[in-house]
Amino acid sequence: MAFSYREIGRLIPVSKGTLSGWCRDLALTPHEMRLLEQRQKALIVQGQVGRSRRYVTRDRAEERRALARAQVSQLKTDPFWVAGLTAYWAEGAKRTRSLSFSNSDPDRINLFLAWGCKYLVLSPDRFTVRLHLHAGQDESERRRFWCESTSLSPTQFRKSFVKPEGSGHRKNILYNGTAQVRVTKSTALLDQVLGWIEGFRDAFVFSG
């Protein structure tokens, strides 16, 4: 079976120039040439399909964001919506593909939970929690604290991230750690929230 330089390069970490030197005296049969041409055409088709899917995904995301931006004119007078949106704008993840909000203040976490349930129509079981703790903190005690503070089920808590001991002196250790709340299957919802942020920014920050 014949392999292209790209396929060989995946198996042997050398440059195409080196491979060309090694293989310049090798002669391929007509059958091997046809196989290579067929595989090259298949790779081109796969690349075109992949690009097409990416374009469709981007177009759908922009449609969701545009629709959300248009909703801001009606929502901007609702103080609860504004409070939750600005909190997410400050503390929420915006470069991932899911909604995620982190804070050490239980009141801020509860704001996000209540805001998500009201304006994104989320059920409480859509939330998962991951605690970020320092070495030496009692994980079970901190988890119990956050369960009681948020009224979320212990089954919604994922494995905690524990920061190891460092060589320097730590200051301002967050006693109860930081809770990172994620919303499952929320790519479309993230586009909606980002559109709200854009519309809110344009209405209030750059309006004049």
What does this structure look like?
By secondary structure, the chain is of the alpha+beta class. The protein has two domains: 5-57; 77-205, no CATH class. Helices cover 57% and strands 10% of the residues. The protein has seven helices and four strands; from the N terminus they run ααααβαβαββα. It has helices at residues 5-11, 16-23, 30-75, 79-91, 106-119, 139-150, 187-205, and strands at residues 100-103, 127-134, 161-163, 178-183. A four-stranded mixed β-sheet has the order 1-4-2-3, with helices on one face. Helix 6 links the parallel strand 2 and strand 3. Helix 4 crosses helix 5. The chain is flat and about 70 Å long. The mean pLDDT is 82.
- Global shape: flat
Q: On the 0-100 scale, what is the average pLDDT?
A: 82
Largest sheet: 4 strands, mixed
Beta strand %: 5-15%
Number of domains: 2
Low-confidence stretches: none
Oligomer state of the chains in this structure:
single chain
Strand order of the largest sheet: 1-4-2-3
Q: Structural class of the helices, strands and pairings?
A: alpha+beta
Count of DSSP strands:
4
Gyration radius (Cα, Å) is 26 Å
User: What's the helix count?
Assistant: 7
Distance between the termini: 67 Å
Helix content bin = 55-70%
Secondary-structure element series: HHHHEHEHEEH
In terms of topology, how is this protein built?
Elements: H1 5-11, H2 16-23, H3 30-75, H4 79-91, E1 100-103, H5 106-119, E2 127-134, H6 139-150, E3 161-163, E4 178-183, H7 187-205
Parallel strand pairs: 2-3
Antiparallel strand pairs: 1-4, 2-4
Helix pairs in contact: 3-7, 4-5
